[in-house]
Amino acid sequence: MNRLKVLKTILITFIYLSGFQSINLAYASDPGTTGANFLKIGIGPRAVGMGEAQVAICNGVTSVFWNPAGLVSIPTQEASFIYNLWLESISSQYFGYTYPHATIGTFAGSINYLSMDKIQGYDAGGQETGKVTAYDLLGVLSYARELPYGINGGINLKFIQQKLEKESSFAFGVDIGVIGGLGRWLKVKGMERLTIGANLQNLGSKVRFQKEKGSLPLNFKFGVGLRKEVFGDPLTIAIDGNLPNDNDFYGSLGIEYRVRDLIALRLGYKTGQDLGNGISFGGGIKVDIFQIDYALVHFGELGYTHRIGVVTRFGKEAKAVLIEKAFKRGMEYYNEEKYAEAILEFNKILELDPENEKALEMMRRANEKLTPQSKEVAPREPEGKP
User: Fold this and answer.
1) Which residues lie across from 181 on neighbouring strands?
2) Is the distance from CB of 152 to CB of 73 less than 8 angstroms?
3) From residue 270, how far is each of 54, 73, 103, 266 by CA, in Å?
4) Of 96, 198, 266, 355, whose CA is between 20 and 30 Å from 155?
5) Is the dihedral of CA 326, 353, 291, 109 positive or negative?
6) If residue 319 lies in a helix (H) or strand (E), which one and from where to where?
């Protein structure tokens, strides 16, 4: 067994663990085969927990993978780290960063690194030669912006490397995606937040390894998403379809329910899975500018895989978002006549912006409602000032 055969074994393991059936390797001689199949492994606990139905609803830094047009929906600078724990010592780490500019558009950069423990190597005669290392690496530069007619567009430029000990392969690819407000165009009552999306993934060069070569795993991803208020909290439903160049059509269905903008519950289903039943679960917790997400996917007799991700938002825009959310919560408490809770929310704003006129005014009104016959509860003085 030579090194090329060892690489085939590694890639087969990767492909089976990512849940794709009947995929040929890039290094086989049959026409129509694809390489760099690690590009098919879904990124992000939210997306995976929803069965990978994301092309019309993605709105975070991992939009780079599902549809770069989704980057337009990110209001602040955002960074995310994701760890994927697979089976048989295989794991991947992802880091992404986005920077939205008010006039030019949104820029993003991300890195995805997939590896496994050292494996036994063999020479051309089948004799053991010692342990060897293998990994796959993906770097992506992204850009997205608003287009006319309520459409958002985005593009990815991908740099791909696969390595087995001293042997390497390099390739580059491009993704092109769009998201549109279908509900706005249809003007149907109750369907205002219906969206439609499409993404052409992995247009690019051939993957070459020694004397063998194969195309990137080209895929046309399309779908719809709908967001509705249920018991005062947002429910998101998404449906995706996929047309890969090396496999049959498969679809995804995902549901997410957010409670008080604090807790997220997710359920998903993906068709055409040889391993497992295609069902996935997930959840998340969001506190101010921080968010933690988790997803669990069943792979039948092979067991379960786990994804966990951390997202943080920062910069002046993040401060504005915190102020906006605190004011919204404060007004909700005020309208519900929960004046003490409203005062706490308005005071959070004053800690961030002591001169905020709206918060000062609502603080005054809440004090008057809370203690109409007694001394007002004064807003807290900012630290470091007399």
Assistant:
1) none
2) yes
3) 12, 25, 38, 14
4) 266
5) positive
6) helix 316-335
Q: At what angle do helices 316-335 and 357-370 cross, to 10 degrees?
A: 20
Helix (H) or strand (E) holding 276: none
Whole-Å CA distances, 44 to 66, 296, 345 = 10, 11, 32
Q: CATH for 3-314? A: 2.40.160.60
Cα–Cα distance measured from residue 206 to residue 31, given in angstroms and rounded to the nearest whole number: 13
350 Rama sector, left if φ>0, alpha if ψ -120 to 50, beta otherwise: alpha
Rg (CA), the chain: 24
Cβ neighbours, 10 Å, residue 260:
10
Tokens matching residue 91: 């794991």
H or E element at residue 356 = none
| Rounded alpha-carbon distances, angstroms, from residue 268 to 13, 49, 54, 110 | 24, 6, 11, 25
The amino acid present at 261, given as its one-letter code, is D
Place 351 in a pLDDT band, splitting at 50, 70 and 90: confident
Please report, for the chain, the start and end positions of each structural domain, with discontinuous segments joined by +: 3-314, 319-370
Span 155-193, pLDDT tens digits: 999 999 988 777 888 999 999 999 999 877 777 777 878
In three-state form (DSSP H/G/I as H, E/B as E, the rest C), the secondary structure along 208-238 is EECCEEEECCCEEEEEEEEEEEECCEEEEEE
Instruction: Give the separation between CA 175 and CA 254, rounded to whole angstroms.
Output: 23
Instruction: Quickly state the pLDDT bin for 208 (edges 50, 70, 90).
Output: confident
User: Can you tell me the distance from the alpha carbon of 288 to that of 261, in angstroms, rounded to the nearest whole number?
Assistant: 10
Tell me phi and psi for residue 358, to 5 degrees: -65, -45
Answer with the residue of higher pLDDT: 46 or 288.
46
- pTM, 2 dp: 0.77
DSSP letters along 120-184, please?
EEE-TTS-EEEEE-EEEEEEEEEEEEEEGGGEEEEEEEEEEEEEETTEEEEEEEEEEEEEE-HHH
Which residues, other chains included, contact 365 with Cβ-Cβ below 8 Å and sequence gap of 6+? 334
Phi and psi at 9, nearest 5°, equal: -60, -45
